[in-house]
Amino acid sequence: MFTTGSKLFVGATVLSTVGAIVFGASVGGPTGTLGTIGLISVAIAFGFLAGINFFTRDGNVPAMEPGVEVNAAAAQPPVGRSMWPLVTAVGVGGMAIGAVSKPVVFKVSVILVLAAVVEWMIQGWSERASSDRAYNDSLRKRLLHPLEFPILASVIAALVIYSFSRIMLTIDKDAGRWVFIIIGAVITIVGFVFAAKRGMSKGTAGGIVAVGLLALVGVGVASAVSGQRTIEEHPHITTAVCLGTASEAEIEEVDAKGSQTVAAKSSVIANVYLDETEHLFALNGGIGTVEYQEITVPRSTDVHVLFHNDSAEPRRLTVHLGTFPAADGTAGSEIADCTTAIEEGGEAFLTFRLDKSQAASSTPYRLTVPGVEGQEIKLLVP
Amino acid sequence: MDRSEKTVTTLGDMPSPRRRWTRAALVGLGLVLAGCAKDAPQDYFQPKGPNAQKIDDLQRPVFYIAAIVGVVVLGAVGYIVFKFKDRGQDIPEQSHGNPKLEIALTILPAIILAGIAVPTVITVFDLDRKDDTECIINVTGQQWWWEYDYATGDCGGVNIPEPIVTSGELVIPVDTPVLLRITSRDVIHSYWIPALNGKRDAVPGRLHTLRMQADEAGLYTGQCTEFCGLSHARMRQAAVALDQADFQSWVDNQLEPYVAPEADSLAATGEGTFIANCSKCHQVNGIANADGTPVLSDPDLYVVSGVAPNLTNLLTRTAIAGWTFDILTEECRTTLWETKGEGFGELYLQGVTPECFDEVALREWLRNPTGMKPMFADATNLESTGGKYRGMPNLNLTEDQIDQLIAFLIERK
Question: How many CB atoms lie within 10 A of CB B322?
């Protein structure tokens, strides 16, 4: 009456039911509740499978039935091993975990499930396409390899890049260059060995590559877990630096790596010079040698001036961008921007934008050089 | 439709080959004759300044050479097509190549191109000269109008003590090399007054220069020549050249202090309407609130480009909304456009007089700007621009408010 498969599932159902009763009675608290629910779920699942098996009688076909020689399970070509049910299960589990933890886990799991289902379906179809197993296998490859190889290669490349980036973000900046050199050297040497030893089997080569990949991903995961190194934030140009109210140390650090030359010299609205006598003036493009003490600037657009320091001292050019009431209605403070300190003979670009007419600001728009008294160029914004 | 009613074209209905040729010839003749139109203010074969003249001096010989080459090539092709038409004759003897002919056909174009290259390079460098500049004007493009900021200092012998800002009409002194510093606030535009020089792109973040000079007082029209969005075709401009004395008068007038409308007049009500509805974006220099505080516009808070035309001297200009819609009557406009040299300055400096004022366009513009000029100024769809308008929105003004505003604006001269 009961087939072999049915007996197995009936036994598993009884066992898990008993287990659920015993566990539920002996273990209390949330753990007991959770475990009992899990075991009851398992019992229900086994019961369901036992019912299906009982109904189909293990797929047995009576010996006298017409067409038994082709319909019997034994007459079917044996199916190959498949990892897709497992991958699907992992994906479904991941979806459940992702639903209560991180959306990215859920999304990756959905992709995994979809990919596994497609693979599973095509494998299932191809294994029954004919009685020739080799032909069936070639069918599957023809359909899926054009998808599998590029996707797999992309995933592996992404893994390598991501792992490597995590490593580089974790290790010390100086150690980074050695890591680059060593990994690059190892890859070159391994590539040379592969090329030189032509008799090397695919398995050996694949194994070496797999070990290297696993090592990289492993270290990458460990690096990601430990987090990136502390990156020091260096001071940058601020209004305080430009107006000289920042600390000496801050100003010194801002100026330390300032470029002294510029490559792009076109598009400037004026060349601003501080000459050897510390006289500040502007030359409007195209006007020749006429010195200007004011520049008319269009509003609401980026404009550039090119600062030339011909004085003996390192100097910066500061643009005073006006003073406007704060959002809470109180009097605001002056805004400024500037170049870094430029050595004698050096040049620097200064780009700024004035959105409001000069009448809106309680302080004038102007260009000055901190440390040089009585010299300024007015910026007129109609 | 009843089958019997269908119009069926048969070979019998087709025009005869002779008639077809006649029609094609007439169309071609019409196209050719269109080039002879005299009322073509943007014809770049009519230079009115030294820079445009240099371009014309280069393009005419190039055009003639190209025309001769074109006629010879097309004539030869036509001759060969008809002469050697397949009439069932035997295939002639086949030959492979003709070295002498091929060498000649390589060398001849090379000589022609080299001959063209020399004056082209000279002209390009000559047009790029800036060392003779006598006046600087900042030209800034935005969707869909041009703004001009006059730098302080000397401009062709006329001192500009304070910056002047205007739009649409570029007013320059005659016989003065003016340097335009051209940029853009939003997308790429291109500035072109064909009678005075070539075109120059206006690129955000960059400053391009263009020398402009007019030989004779007059009005020279142009338009944006780089597709810049929905109303590119309605982004026009003009250069107005004035004699030095007239230019001095124009500068003086631009810097005149604001005169408030007469109390209790319609214009005075219009001033209040302007402050309430327009001054967020448009500036009228010198206008003040009732408590005496100056009214300052903040177009950077409301408009994508960050600016709106300054209306201080609106009625000194002859067209509005990107110099697209005339506010002069047709008769006055024709007179102004056709007057050159002597008398032009006087005519222009009158501004838009009551006799010449055609308020139709201004009224309609105030009533429904987006209907007159397509813009992305839909108040219900500002998501992509961070809540800012791209162009002038419809303010839903009442007819009374429009009357008041017109009364106020007509005094802005």
Answer: 26
